[in-house]
Amino acid sequence: MASSFIRQDEGLFVPDSVARRVWSYPTSALLGFIRAVTIEHLDPDLTAAVAHSGQVVQRPALRYDRTVQYFATVLFGDAASVIKSSDVLMKVHSRAYGPNPVTGGEYDSNDPASQLWIHMTAWHSILYVYEMYGPGKLSRTDENEYWRECAVAAECQPIHVHDVPRTRGEVQKYFDDWRDRLASSEAAVHNIEFILAGMRTIFTALPAPMRAVMGPVIRAGVIATYPRWMRALMGVRQSRVTDSAVVAVLRPGMAALARSPRAQLWFLERVAPRGGPVLTDHLRGIPAETSSVYSPEQARKKFGDPRTPLEQYADQLAVRRDGATAKPYEHKHREAPLEFAAPAARVG
Fold it and tell me: Cys-Cys with 344: which of 39, 120, 141, 280 at CB 3.0–4.6 Å?
């Protein structure tokens, strides 16, 4: 896979950042995102938003790819690409609101609490599969740095950054506090099953024999990461024996894949043809044109809408209250809007 663009700078993170190390491990694309977008469905508001769009079932490969594309851009793209993706995501989500038939309330995809759930479940899920099927747990120092970097990335979404957990204990408390808000529904169970069958429903660009062999293993590997109380909500079952066996199978497989950037890129080209190229230079060790690293605030002022995502959201709410039509922000680089999924992660 050839790099599809030239990175002008290193974006928000230095090349050897803990976040880049974790997110570039092959567990992310093959296990982490599946885990994330399935757990996401236990939030009734997110399920309502996904069910309303219908894109998970109608265009699963594209939806998955653009989820990977957004998060890969924030982690590995240059600053201009990061801010552009952030602004596009804000616009896509500005149309994703309406009544929630399960709760009787309303969902709003740009709501800061909802966005924090999306962000934290994604970052936690990627780390969890890295620890379970990859090199193992990070050191305390590295993990604290990982969560600091998580807070940096949170500034690309309409999130109150002071609410972002910064340590393993704070992250666990965050998910414990969310547990009473989680619920299942017919739509949630249906979509979870559809996504768990990703080798049949999403990764259709992989060779059929490979999908037939990998399908049950990837499904079992993702289920093994769910806490047992959560499996009941999701409508899935799996024995402890299978949980242990799939770790024994996947860990050496992921290690072998990690040792071969060429093989990793081959997989990425087929499971995420838009998102995969964003990682190409990192996996090949190719530096950006300059070594500059920006804070989200610096990048936004230089390359995009100077308003923060929270300020953009406040403006969206004002327009909605007035019953007016939002005036779209014009990017310096015109491109058809992308649709990004709303990921999730491990609780417990």
Answer: 39
Which portions of the chain are predicted below pLDDT 70? 1-5, 53-57, 324-348
Range 282-319 burial, b when 16+ CB lie within 10 A, else e: bbeeeebeeeebbebeebbeebbbeebbbebbebbeee
Structure tokens at 141: 């120092």
CA 89 to chain centre: 13
Nearest-angstrom CA–CA distance, 278 and 65: 12
CA distance 29 to 258: 12
Query: Is residue 221 a contact partner of residue 133, using CB atoms and an 8 Å limit?
Result: yes
Tokens of 77: 């793209």
DSSP 32: I
Q: What angle do the packed helices 112-133 and 140-154 form, to 10 degrees?
A: 150
Among candidate residues 174, 117, 137, 116, the one with its CA nearest the CA of residue 22: 137
- The full set of domain ranges for the chain reads 18-322
Q: Which residues pair with 183 in a beta bridge?
A: none
Q: What is the pTM of this model?
A: 0.89
